[in-house]
């Protein structure tokens, strides 16, 4: 495991350091010498060095120190895979929180959340294999095999990091991977937090009814279906950043209060994350039935997650993700082990649209396992939620953290904007529920979260 220590956010000289090219923390994709790939590589204007520099500029807005490094996970999918990782507050003895981003994203898009999460516990954010600065191996074409390859990469990362168990948080596609990981390695997951997760519901039978859709739209959608979701960004070549700016101005607005000096860092970062070989993106394409649905929906399997692992769903009220799956899972597993939180006014990127509310919900869930303060003993407490919670139920407190940290994933929403024609009628369904801590035998009485005073 090799790595480099990032400077504290506003340390003197940080700007100069950001622009330096250091091969020790730059993963260069292999092009195998094929001339067409070399030409395409140059046309897309992809640059690992530029990606590194832009990421460090964005992360310079964090207030707490962080460390960035590659974790060598060996031949998980490719010959020698490496996962780019950020860590914060690793000296804390609390249960660590591990973050998995969604499609087309990277670790820097958690910039609005990391400070709040890391205030009281260890936090690890990774570029999922095939995305961001991590290795870009060739995934299998079979949907279930792809899914297992993602799960294997997370497990190999955990082993190399020597993390015994964790609170696992996944957004969109990351939520799908996190759920599959909990099915395969239940002993490693203390709590599963799913933020607007993709791939949960089964594709409805009436989704094929396209009588009201113009013929030309259906024709274009059919042509574009075989292509990877973010093909347009790469096709634009050196204009990829411009494509992001024009198709997703809302993404830039989400970060404007955090990245005030240069809001164009966001489209530049998204472009550099996705102009490279579409390794993880191709794997996502293999796992999807159409953009909004998975070939093997999680709704049919989530019931098999070990009964003592609580699940928390956090949904945006305005998201294109359907939260009905969460209610179904709640009825299957019971209110004691599943909870649904709705963030009013937030869209799919719930962590960025309403970061204060999202951060509070996540921290409340993580605080269940805090032992240093003596508030709640994680294995002995059972939270009972009587109903779905919305952020309208109480005032949103001001976080006592030094950063206006919000996290945002360039996930399916980004794809949706840049391939809107192809995905006009695609609606993804996902479920949301606020999980409850592990339920083990204990003489300690059940506690209702509503009775726990927020600090």
Automatic annotation (TrEMBL):
Organism: Drosophila virilis (Fruit fly)
Gene Ontology BP term (one): fatty acid metabolic process
Enzyme class: transferase
GO molecular function terms attached to this record: 1-acylglycerol-3-phosphate O-acyltransferase activity; carboxylic ester hydrolase activity
Summary of the function given for this chain in its UniProt record: Coenzyme A-dependent lysophosphatidic acid acyltransferase that catalyzes the transfer of an acyl group on a lysophosphatidic acid. Functions preferentially with 1-oleoyl-lysophosphatidic acid followed by 1-palmitoyl-lysophosphatidic acid, 1-stearoyl-lysophosphatidic acid and 1-arachidonoyl-lysophosphatidic acid as lipid acceptor. Functions preferentially with arachidonoyl-CoA followed by oleoyl-CoA as acyl group donors. Functions in phosphatidic acid biosynthesis. May regulate the cellular storage of triacylglycerol through activation of the phospholipase PNPLA2.
Domain AB hydrolase-1 positions: 96-355
Domain of life according to the entry: Eukaryota
UniProt protein name: 1-acylglycerol-3-phosphate O-acyltransferase ABHD5
GO CC annotation: lipid droplet; mitochondrion
EC number(s) from the headed UniProt entry: 2.3.1.51
Family as reported in the entry's similarity comment: Belongs to the peptidase S33 family. ABHD4/ABHD5 subfamily.
Annotated InterPro entries: AB_hydrolase_1 (IPR000073), AB_hydrolase_fold (IPR029058)
Reaction(s) catalysed by this chain's protein: 1-(5Z,8Z,11Z,14Z-eicosatetraenoyl)-sn-glycero-3-phosphate + (9Z)-octadecenoyl-CoA = 1-(5Z,8Z,11Z,14Z)-eicosatetraenoyl-2-(9Z)-octadecenoyl-sn-glycero-3-phosphate + CoA; eicosanoyl-CoA + 1-(9Z-octadecenoyl)-sn-glycero-3-phosphate = 1-(9Z)-octadecenoyl-2-eicosanoyl-sn-glycero-3-phosphate + CoA; 1-(9Z-octadecenoyl)-sn-glycero-3-phosphate + (5Z,8Z,11Z,14Z)-eicosatetraenoyl-CoA = 1-(9Z)-octadecenoyl-2-(5Z,8Z,11Z,14Z)-eicosatetraenoyl-sn-glycero-3-phosphate + CoA; a 1-acyl-sn-glycero-3-phosphate + an acyl-CoA = a 1,2-diacyl-sn-glycero-3-phosphate + CoA
Entry keywords, A to Z: Acyltransferase, Cytoplasm, Differentiation, Fatty acid metabolism, Lipid biosynthesis, Lipid droplet, Lipid metabolism, Transferase
Localization of this protein: Cytoplasm; Lipid droplet
